[in-house]
Prior knowledge:
This protein is α+β, with helices and mostly antiparallel strands. The protein contains three helices and five strands. It has helices at residues 34-46, 75-82, 85-94, and strands spanning 5-9, 12-25, 51-58, 65-72, 103-109.
Amino acid sequence: MPQPSCQLVGQRRIVAVIFIVVKYQVKPESIPVWLDVTKPFTKATRHEPGNLWFEWYTSTDRADEFLLVEAFKDGQAGAAHVGSEHFRTALDAMRPHLAHTPEIVSQTVAQTGWDKMGELPID
């Protein structure tokens, strides 16, 4: 697995990843095929050297809403992703299935991956 980027802030070493969540609203007739449409994109992105995770989720409130949660080891990996041929191909494949322009949150997050939720310990 690729290592997240590190930067020195004062005397502290900060480990950060690019964390992205994209909300897609698909046309009603595309709901049953959406994950098949995005499958080649998903597979190719998961094989990128800088990809940390790339996961699809469905809304429990809206059948037409899909969330993509993804992370990249650094800005260079994110730029390589957006500049890739499979990214451009995926945009063309997704466009006819979308009801609206997707919404996105993209942030640099100072951690290396998922942490355990402190408020709900199970272990």
